[in-house]
Amino acid sequence: xxxxxxxxxxxxxxxxxxxxxxxxxxxxxxxxxxxxxxxxxxxxxxxxxxxxxxxxxxxxxxxxxxxxxxxxxxxxxxxxxxxxxxxxxxxxxxxxxxxxxxxxxxxxxxxxxxxxxxxxxxxxxxxxxxxxxxxxxxxxxxxxxxxxxxxxxxxxxxxxxxxxxxxxxxxxxxxxxxxxxxxxxxxxxxxxxxxxxxxxxxxxxxxx
Length: 208
Ligand code: MN3
What we know:
By secondary structure, the chain is mainly alpha-helical. The protein folds into 2 domains: 31-94, Fe,Mn superoxide dismutase (SOD) domain (Helix Hairpins, Orthogonal Bundle), CATH 1.10.287.990; 106-207, minor pseudopilin epsh fold. The protein contains 8 helices and 3 strands, in the order αααααβββααα. Strand 1 (137-144) and strand 2 form a beta hairpin. Manganese (III) ion (MN3) is lined by residues 37, 41, 89, 171, 173, 175-176.
């Protein structure tokens, strides 16, 4: 029983709509998980960011600019954590699609073959990063200095704060999977890699 999320109505930062219906990723990610993860967690980051940035120069910046600027200011860790979590979550929703998984094509496939050897090698590395991120965080496929790499970040941290260009991400905070998989993070990660990845989104992020 999903509760429709309320769009934030105060402040410059908004909660973007989910790119699919809340039952679109079932049975791997259920409407119950999406209603909490998107409707509560993601929304709370937006609301917190609006409160924390009120009256500050950050309120006039784009979300991506806020992430990059606040990453350099230790005193603005709260702004960084909430802005990066807003950005990371929107990117995560788009990294998945109904009937996802499979394999990429075209330029992305060629680039993966060049930088990882094969799609299976990339999938294995990505799953390993997602499973071994200690505690809360994210696994990523990024473009870094012209080369595709698998990375992981802790808590709210985001590759966009480190000069890398993300192509895909998997949220490995417990709130992403605990209602559906309990402590079985490896099963959630396997479902993400095999059934949910949106390779068209990754290809669009790689660019032409
Ligand atoms: Mn999350």
